[in-house]
Design brief:
Elements lengths: L3 E9 L3 E6 L2 E6 L2 H4 L8 E11 L3 E7 L2 H11 L6 H10 L2 H10 L2 H4 L7 H11 L20 H13 L4 H14 L5 H16 L2
Antiparallel strand pairs: 1-2, 1-4, 2-3, 4-5
Helix pairs in contact: 2-3, 7-8, 7-9, 8-9
Length: about 200
């Protein structure tokens, strides 16, 4: 019924947004992976939409910034015992790149770190999706960073993982740091990331 909505972003928080399309406000439930890519309030935005209806919840619209997020969400909700709420949690717990890689290599431990997903559920996701995620096209399963920065950022990421930080949070912080600064070593990135993650935790 809906493919996408294009309008002005009037409200946003990590789980829900409102888009004004010619005077009509559409409320959409979103994952964190979409929230992180949104522009500021008052900006024009195009959000891909999944329409859902059932007797208990009525009509609900789910919004996604990319085709990959939307496609993966639809794959997830087709799995037994995985509803839209849990599918959003999965997309909020790991980036699309990390989730697809984890499914393809059978990294049950990483998938189990997602809120609401236990070991058995993670194993079921791997079994159900391993042969299907190849249909989600136009996505690189390599690094999220530029080729020139790959070595030092991956070294910093490994160090931060060893310290117990979550991969999703690490990549988000490192991507922002690399965009705003010119680092020449993984040690510099690691120290800056720890400082940024500590500050975020204590806001």
């Amino acid at each position: 019924m809906y493919s996408y909505l294009k309008g002005i972003l009037t409200e946003k928080d990590p789980t829900i947004i409102v888009i004004d399309c010619n005077g009509i406000g559409y409320e959409l439930l979103i994952p964190l992976s979409t929230f992180d890519k949104l522009p500021g309030i008052g900006s024009e935005v195009k959000i891909l939409v999944h329409y859902s209806f059932n007797e208990s919840d009525g009509v609900r619209l789910f919004g996604f910034y990319s085709n990959e997020e939307k496609a993966l969400f639809r794959q997830l909700i087709n799995i037994s015992k995985v509803g839209p709420k849990l599918a959003l949690s999965v997309l909020s717990g790991l980036s699309v790149v990390d989730l697809l890689r984890a499914i393809q290599i059978g990294d049950v431990k990483l998938i189990s770190t997602i809120h609401g997903i236990g070991k058995k559920s993670a194993e079921r996701l791997v079994i159900e999706l391993k042969d299907k995620v190849g249909n989600i096209s136009n996505i690189s399963l390599g690094s999220d960073y530029s080729e020139a920065d790959t070595e030092i950022t991956q070294d910093a990421e490994t160090a931060l993982l060893t310290l117990g930080y979550k991969r999703y949070d690490i990549r988000k912080i490192i991507f922002k740091l690399m965009k705003d600064n010119d680092y020449t070593s993984s040690e510099e990135i690691t120290k800056a990331a720890i400082k940024a993650l500590y500050k975020k935790r204590n806001i």
